[in-house]
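Appendix C: a fully annotated inverse folding record. The material below is reproduced so that readers can follow the format used throughout the book. The structure is listed first as tokens, followed by the designed sequence.
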């Protein structure tokens, strides 16, 4: 204590401090003021009254009392630090910085002052200075979890997720039950595509703080990324239960429900997202995308145009309109929408694929190839880009690449091709040496009749050829040279050694324009002349 306090002063001050620590602020304030009646310049009473006023939200009064305390004892680092906190509370960060600096001149190892100085710089957007202050704070006080946490935040904002992970882990080492650190550690793991670690972080955060909508939301996003759709759905529902106005949770629940084949429920959640975020263009655009899938095109146009009214450069809404115009055969309108999208987002895969399809249908296949190849540069495994590139390449006679890319039809939703699953291996073009091969039709009548022409070539490689085809074509296919057996879809399949879909044969044979099997007629009527004359 400063000065020579009487026994009475000491008793009053000690009693006031005890009441203060017990949370009895009014009684503590009265006792501190009694000290000042007898000792107007008593430093501790002035300082403690300043702290008490800040606790009560009386910031101007807190500042006044702390300034008086500083006038009495200008070498008190803690008082300058407390003044900095009040200045920060009042929104005057530059003045707070001056107070923190003064505290650190007096006491350079004052970890909390370094930490709060960092907070002031962070609030001003000076993150490099903030990081330097946080580093000083944790060097002087290694167990300061909040300092490590804030260093993690800065690295996370710089997208340096690996370093952010290091700082969050240090924060958790000091404070294992730190839900915010667990959440952000999980977010960093998610950004690094470390989904299992991310899920563990979010789950641990929820063990500590079950009423944590953001953790439920991100756990759902990770489960969705892992393909655990029912778990993702449950997590999104938990997030909504705790925060019904969370539009992102409604939107992602809609996405998961749609992925599970529940279009009505998905639509309901998309509309719920709109109800809580009516000015968010993204949710209107997503509703439009859902409505396209169920062929409610007019409603989809309305939802997409609503998104564009809210934000004219909403790319997903433009994508919706491009897709709708393509479905309606309005090629010029679809192309115009795609060009608009590509001005906003030059590598937008949906727009590049759509424009590729438009140019193919406009008989501009070389332009189509250019757009589709750009789509594949952005996303090399995109099946819709590959299948449309295959079609364009076949149109211009690039057969070898075209047939190779046409194998993507099994993964594209555009072709509705369903791959067959057999225990026997798929034929790769090797000599068959008496083995039996099953060829099976996969698309329309015309495709079956076009590609069964490869049967003689397969027979030349020593194969016994079984063809599975549409019932109406059975007799016609059975008359093709090289075909040993024909069965209809659904009939028992005879024993075979290898298999191949009919439309994969050009790729297997590395067919070029010059090597197309062209021996004609390869199709012959199965009806004999006598039957024809009687007919």
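Designed amino acids, in order:
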């Amino acid at each position: 204590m400063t000065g020579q306090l009487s026994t009475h002063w000491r008793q009053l001050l000690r009693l006031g401090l005890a009441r203060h620590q017990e949370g009895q602020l009014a009684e503590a304030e009265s006792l501190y003021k009694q000290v000042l009646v007898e000792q107007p310049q008593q430093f501790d009473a002035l300082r403690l009254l300043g702290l008490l006023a800040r606790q009560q939200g009386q910031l101007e009064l807190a500042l006044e009392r702390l300034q008086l305390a500083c006038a009495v004892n200008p070498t008190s680092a803690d008082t300058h630090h407390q003044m900095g906190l009040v200045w920060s509370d009042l929104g005057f960060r530059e003045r707070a910085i001056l107070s923190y600096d003064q505290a650190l001149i007096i006491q350079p190892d004052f970890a909390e002052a370094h930490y709060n100085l960092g907070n002031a710089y962070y609030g001003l957007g000076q993150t490099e200075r903030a990081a330097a202050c946080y580093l000083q704070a944790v060097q002087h006080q290694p167990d300061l979890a909040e300092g490590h946490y804030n260093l993690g935040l800065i690295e996370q904002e710089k997208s340096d997720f690996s370093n952010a992970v290091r700082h969050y882990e240090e924060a958790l080492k000091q404070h294992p039950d730190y839900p915010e650190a667990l959440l952000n550690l999980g977010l960093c793991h998610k950004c690094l595509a470390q989904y299992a670690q991310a899920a563990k972080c979010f789950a641990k955060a929820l063990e500590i703080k079950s009423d944590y909508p953001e953790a439920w939301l991100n756990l759902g996003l990770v489960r969705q990324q892992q393909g655990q759709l029912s778990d993702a759905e449950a997590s999104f529902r938990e997030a909504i239960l705790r925060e019904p106005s969370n539009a992102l949770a409604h939107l992602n629940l809609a996405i998961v429900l749609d992925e599970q084949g529940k279009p009505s429920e998905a639509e309901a959640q998309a509309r719920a997202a709109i109800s809580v975020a009516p000015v968010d263009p993204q949710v209107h655009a997503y509703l439009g995308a859902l409505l396209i899938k169920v062929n409610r095109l007019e409603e989809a146009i309305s939802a997409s145009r609503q998104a564009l009214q809210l934000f004219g450069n909403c790319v997903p809404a433009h994508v919706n309109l491009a897709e709708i115009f393509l479905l309606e055969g309005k090629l010029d309108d679809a192309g115009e929408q795609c060009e608009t999208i590509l001005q906003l987002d030059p590598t937008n895969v949906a727009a590049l694929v759509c424009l590729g399809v438009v140019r193919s249908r406009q008989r501009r296949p070389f332009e189509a190839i250019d757009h589709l190849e750009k789509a594949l540069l952005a996303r090399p495994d995109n099946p819709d880009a590959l299948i449309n590139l295959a079609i364009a390449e076949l149109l211009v006679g690039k057969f070898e690449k075209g047939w190779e890319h046409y194998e993507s039809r099994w993964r594209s939703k555009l072709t509705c091709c369903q791959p067959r699953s057999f225990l026997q291996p798929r034929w790769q073009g090797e000599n068959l040496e008496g083995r039996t091969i099953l060829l099976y039709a996969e698309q329309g009548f015309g495709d079956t009749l076009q590609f069964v022409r490869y049967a003689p070539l397969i027979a030349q490689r020593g194969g016994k050829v079984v063809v599975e085809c549409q019932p109406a074509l059975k007799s016609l296919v059975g008359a093709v040279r090289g075909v040993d057996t024909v069965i209809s879809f659904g009939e028992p399949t005879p024993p075979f050694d290898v298999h191949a879909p009919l439309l994969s044969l050009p790729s297997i044979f590395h067919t070029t324009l010059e090597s197309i099997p062209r021996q004609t007629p390869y199709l012959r009527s199965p009806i004999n002349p006598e039957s024809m004359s009687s007919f």
